[in-house]
Amino acid sequence: MSNSLLEGVVAEVKEPCSLPMLSVDMENKENGSVGVKNSMENGRPPDPADWAVMDVVNYFRTAGFEEQASAFQEQEIDGKSLLLMTRNDVLTGLQLKLGPALKIYEYHVKPLQTKHLKNNSS
Fold first, then answer.
1. Which of 35, 51, 77, 108 would staple 55 via disulfide (CB 3.0–4.6 Å)?
2. What is the DSSP letter of 28?
3. H-helix or E-strand containing 46?
4. 3-class SS at 31?
5. 8-state DSSP, 122
6. Is residue 73 exposed (0-12), middle (13-18) or buried (19+ Cβ within 10 Å)?
7. CA-to-CA dists, residue 90 to 6, 54, 112, angstroms
8. What does the alpha-carbon distance between residue 17 and residue 20 come to, in Å, rounded to a whole number?
9. Backbone dihedral angles phi then psi of residue 37, each to the nearest 5 degrees
10. Residues in the chain, pLDDT under 70
C-alpha cells in the first residue's frame, strides 16, 4: 500500500463521528445488568411501542451493546417489533453471540415487555 493511500485511509478514520451523543442516566444493578433510565431526555418516547428503529438501536448502544445494536437496525426492529420478540428471536434471529444475546433478552427486552404490558393493562 502506498504512503499517500495509507494516509487517506488514516485521515478517514480520524475524522470525528457525526452521530449525536445521548445523555443517559445509567445505574448498575446487583445482577450485573445496567438499567437505562428512559425519558425524552434520551431522545426516545417513554413507551417502547412508539420507538422507531433508530430509537431501538440507540437504546442498545447506550445500554453498552454497541456491537450488537446494528443487528436491530439490519433486521429493522422498531419498538413494536421489539415488544413482540421472543427469547428465541433474540438468541437466534439476530445472529448475535450467545452471551450478549442472553443479556439483551433477560435484562432489556423482557423487562421492557413486562413494563409495557403493566402500563397498558389498566
1. 51
2. E
3. none
4. coil
5. -
6. middle
7. 39, 17, 14
8. 8
9. -75, 125
10. 1-41, 122
Report whether 112 contacts 82 (CB < 8 A).
Answer: yes
For residues 90 and 107, the answer to whether their CB atoms sit within 8 Å is no
> Could you tell me the three cell numbers for 35?
438499567
Burial class (CB in 10 A: 0-12, 13-18, 19+), 4: exposed
Query: What span, in angstroms and rounded, lies between the C-alpha atoms of 93 and 114?
Result: 21
- 48-120: CATH topology is DNA polymerase; domain 1 (1.10.150)
- Listed as own residue / partner, the contacts of 22-26 with beta carbons closer than 8 Å and 24 or more positions apart are 22/58, 22/61, 22/62, 24/62, 26/62
Element containing residue 27 per DSSP (H, E): strand 26-28
Residue 13: the pLDDT is 43
CA nearest to 113, candidates 79, 64, 73, 89: 79
Distance CA 25, CA 38 (A): 8
How far is residue 112 from each of residues 68, 74, 99, measured CA to CA in Å? 18, 21, 19
What pLDDT, on a 0 to 100 scale, did the predictor assign at position 44? 87
Q: What pLDDT is recorded for position 20?
A: 42
